[in-house]
Write a structure and sequence with these properties.
The protein is mainly beta. It has 4 helices and 24 strands. It has helices spanning about 120-130, 150-160, 205-210, 360-365; strands spanning about 5-10, 30-35, 35-40, 45-50, 65-70, 80-85, 90-95, 100-105, 115, 135, 145-150, 190, 225-235, 235-250, 255-265, 275, 295, 300, 305-310, 320-325, 330-340, 350-355, 355-360, 370. It is elongated, with a radius of gyration of 24 Å.
Length: about 375
Amino acid sequence: MPPIITTIGLLTFAAAGSADIATPIPNPGELKVFRDWSAGCDNGGRCQAISLVNDASGGYSEWGGPVSIIRSADREDKLKIRVLVQVAEIGSYAVVVDRKTIASGTMVEGDYPIEVTGQDAKKLATAIARGRKLQVTGANDKILTSISLYGSTAALRYMDQKQNRARTPTALIAKGRRKYRGDAVPLPVVTTQQWQPAKRIPATTEIVDLVENSPCKDDRFGVVEDQIFPLGQEDDRYRALILISCGSGAYNFSSAAYIGEIKGTEKKGASWAFRPATYDLQPSWGGEGRPPLLVNAHWEENRQILSSFAKGRGIGDCGNSESFIWDGEQFRLIEAQGMQECRGAYEWITTWRAKYQKAEELAQNDSGSPETSE
């Protein structure tokens, strides 16, 4: 367990350090809403359309989860349609569009009990684009979810356009004879130069001093928790990540990230210096005159990945999430997801992806495959 320091209503803003801005600067894709569907694509050309609760009827009575259509841009042309429903027991299912069964099969264990791929997925996507209402039924024809298809045509057309499929035989909407020349865009690779593992961290008194002068201090109420994690060692230099509590709500808890560094030992007069963490793309939260904020922050110490997960409302059907990897000097975005409409879509659309590889591993094996955030 990482050490946790409990304090009451305090915080500090230390002098900011600087880090080179990585190129290319992340540019997450745009999310679009087409009536009862949302669509978006990431920087690798992968696109996704997700159904939303019908806005006119507010129809949650038959809503058991959204339908998600995902398509890759490469020549393998992976298309899959999955239904995010929670079922009491695994059994058979049928996907019915305007009272006509288009796909059927047996559910599987996992997050996505229903998934249609290949030619069956293309057939179902065509029916979705032409239909008005989709229902998924289980045992004894029980309705598991009911989906409005208004806007699905526009959402799939948007995917075709973003993947340069319009007027080609591969398009889902408005097919044509133009040759499809699209291909997946190579994902950027983040090279990390992380220090050797170490356990040294600042003392509680130093964190309190950091906290007392922070612009977040007025947003800390009651008992709050600050977290400290070691970032490693290089010769006699040590670094640490400090996540300082910076306000909270019913289901979102904000943190400001700082980097601490010390050279030498305290016995010889060395002390920790702190600076706000820097990012190649600022997290979505924060404001003028204060450090960027991470929401419901999570630190994965093994891979040194810092994540933020901001919910638009408690049930988690809208918001945004980001994952950053520590490259040795700053945090670099490796994944971003979002859903701007709070209408039942518990799966969010990916808008940015990057791979990453340690510098020493890259030097040892130039042909090695970097890890990806997927």
